[in-house]
Amino acid sequence: MSIKISELGAFAGNVADGDLFAIVDVSDTTQAPSGTTKKITAAIIRGAVRSTESWVFGDNSNPYIACSSATWSTLGAVVFRGTDVVGTPSSFKVIAYNNNAGKTTQVRIYDVTNALEIGIVTVTGTAQAIYTDATLANLPTGEAIIEIQAQRVSTGVTVNVYYAGLFWG
Asked: What residue spans define the domains of the chain?
């Protein structure tokens, strides 16, 4: 016995990455000239719809935030809605540079609510560049405060951070 989608019960709860949706692939006419019904996961839909959660630093006169602290300093914060709602990001990217050659700084994404590091990049260059961490961990499933933080590892160096973001897909 076949059931129409309109006859199914209402969904209650959060959509998980593995939840399935029906989609009509109009480029595949195996079932009908109008297309073929296929399954798709929530993670794929999220990746197509949402590509980034980002922080832009500075203003017109100073387009970056400079940090020369030897301890983690907060550059910005957002409310992250949790992977149960927005899916799981695949990488953390930062646009930054150091003001002193041969010196090292770090920028990280940190879950303040659960006191866990999510991702970190090491900045070594003196020219503006993209730094990427694709090995994210400890992503909160529920709502949490997420900060972008920076610190110097070497003495006598300042990191200039223009942008930081989480990327899906």
From this structure: 5-48, 51-167
Walk across the sheet containing 116-123 and list its strands.
73-80, 144-152, 105-111, 116-123
- The number of residues in the chain equals 169
Per-residue pLDDT at 17 exceeds 80: no
The second-level CATH assignment, the architecture, of 51-167 is Sandwich (2.60)
State the Cα angle at 136 between 42 and 65, rounded to 5°: 110
Which residue did the predictor score with more confidence, 6 or 48?
A: 6
**What tokens does 138 get?**
């400890």
Residue 49: pLDDT band (50, 70, 90) is low
CB-CB neighbours of 87 under 10 Å: 23
The pTM assigned to this predicted structure is: 0.73
How is residue 83 written in tokens?
Answer: 């992977």
**By the 8 A CB rule, do 121 and 94 touch?**
yes
